[in-house]
Specification:
- With 233 residues, the chain is of the alpha+beta class.
- It has a domain at 32-51 and 76-170 and 194-229: Porin (Beta Barrel), CATH 2.40.160.
- It is 18% helix and 52% strand.
- It has two helices and twelve strands, in the order αββββββββββββα.
- It has helices spanning 2-17, 205-229, and strands spanning 37-48, 54-61, 64-71, 76-87, 92-103, 107-119, 125-136, 145-153, 158-168, 172-177, 184-189, 193-203.
- The strands form two sheets. The protein has an eight-stranded antiparallel barrel. Strands 3-2-11-10 form a four-stranded antiparallel beta sheet, with no helix packed on it.
- A hairpin with a 6-residue loop joins strand 10 (172-177) and strand 11.
- The protein starts with a helix and ends with a helix.
- 26% of the residues are buried.
Length: 233
Amino acid sequence: MKKSRTALVLFALLFFANSNLFAQPSLTARPLPHCRSFFITEFGYGYKATSPLKQRTFNTIGDSIWYYEYRMTGRHLLSSELGLMYNLNADYGLGFTHFFGWDVGHHLHGGVKLRVRKWLSEKASIDVSGGVLLWGAESEFEYPSFIGGASLNFSDWESLNLTVTTLQTKSFDYTYFSNYEGVRYGSFTLPQRDIGVYLGYKLSSKPGLAFNAAALTAFAAVVVAFLAAGPYD
């Protein structure tokens, strides 16, 4: 019985290793029968159609209260999506990506997305995706949060995109008393939700890979320069 199981496992490994499912993924997206799997190497820009989020911070002195606002999100999003997609048949593909986004001048965040593709022709297709933002460089936001989108792919290397994100700010409440007047001073914020709708354009395939590589190189150069500068006095 043990030998039979071992033989069955070896047969299964040999079968799947020689199947098209594990064929070398391509950089050029095509439906079956031209391509079984392909890499997703997208880099793009999105313009925020909804209003940027303005955080209100309330201050109190005794019974007096006032607030000020500052912008927590901007209008311009640079994003990268790297992943893999399998063609289930000649009409549909299924895959996943890691999303990395920079709300220019404000915050960085990233997460994972599941993606479904409907092939319209040998080159054109429609993608619908959804997932979660798992982390962010700014501590003011709650994670995980939702991210989704849709894209119309004209070819294997360019597309028009719709991206939707939801972010919620954290609340805080800080109150203290002065030692000599006994007057209460305080500061607090209330949680606010930002729904971002971005319209944009993305490059994929080899052009997208080139832009991703350039962005990664630039980011690494900035980090090295920052570390080389040492601590500020």
